[in-house]
Amino acid sequence: MVQTPDTSESRPIARALQAFRATGGILRTRDAIQAGVHPRTLYQLRDDGQIEQLSRGLYRLLGTPSLGHPDLVTVALKIPGGVLCLISALAWHELTTQIPHEISVAIRRGAEPPRLDYPPVRHYWFSGRAFSEGIETHQVDGIPLHVYSREKTLADCFKHRHRIGLDTVLEALKAYCQRRPVHTETLLHYAEICRVKRIMTPYLEALL
After folding, report:
1. Which residues contact 69 (CB under 8 A, 6 or more apart)?
2. Where are the domains of the chain?
């Protein structure tokens, strides 16, 4: 078996490949630098066809299993403090027939807005308990993704009903009520946080 000579040129490549494998094949530039990998090594691997660029500052090692949800993985890694919300969260929970053309992400008010070339992202400023409560963490292709729960998402959608459309919101509420269990108290808890309890209650009572 012929081994690659341990030259000054091959050592950075080997270090970079090891860093990719240690993270499951996906690496951000900032994490690569912390692992001792120079950006020019990433560019060399990209130009040599050993890694692909998913987005600015985000790379995947070729030869690793294909991503089932590359857009969500990109968002999860590039916006680690963000939470999937509104239409995107409804789609995640299978509460809508709408097909999102962009990924809706809630970020804490005052945080730096995301900068992504791809996928298209629309961010929403949430603050206080409206941001911090009702967050679930799911694994997507081995990457933690933050998503608002079904109940929190419905409350958020009522709050933003003029933007996403009341028909879409009511469709989601109906789909939620057709499933079991229905956590009415939890739903109204989040509705109160989002200040839409008075608006949501009549629609909820009509469906229960």
Report:
1. 140, 141
2. 10-61, 70-207
Element housing 163 (H / E): helix 161-164
The DSSP call for residue 65 is: P
* Long-range contacts, stretch 92-97, CB < 8 angstroms, 24+ apart: 92/138, 92/147, 93/147, 93/150, 93/153, 94/175, 95/150, 95/153, 95/154, 95/171, 95/172, 95/175, 95/176, 96/168, 96/171, 96/172, 96/175, 97/171
Q: 10-61 architecture in CATH?
A: Orthogonal Bundle (1.10)
Residue 70: asked if its preceding bond is cis (omega within 30°), the reply is no
Stretches where the chain sits below pLDDT 50 are 1-5, 7-8
Token digits for 153? 């998402």
In whole angstroms, what is the distance from residue 32 CA to residue 129 CA? 34
Kindly report, residue by residue over 3-24, the tens digit of the pLDDT. 444 544 578 888 888 887 877 7
**How many residues in total does the chain contain?**
208
Whether the CB-CB separation of 37 and 66 falls below 8 Å is answered with no
User: What is the Cα Rg of the chain in Å?
Assistant: 21
CATH class of the domain comprising 70-207: alpha beta
- Among positive and negative, which fits the CA dihedral 186, 187, 190, 192? negative
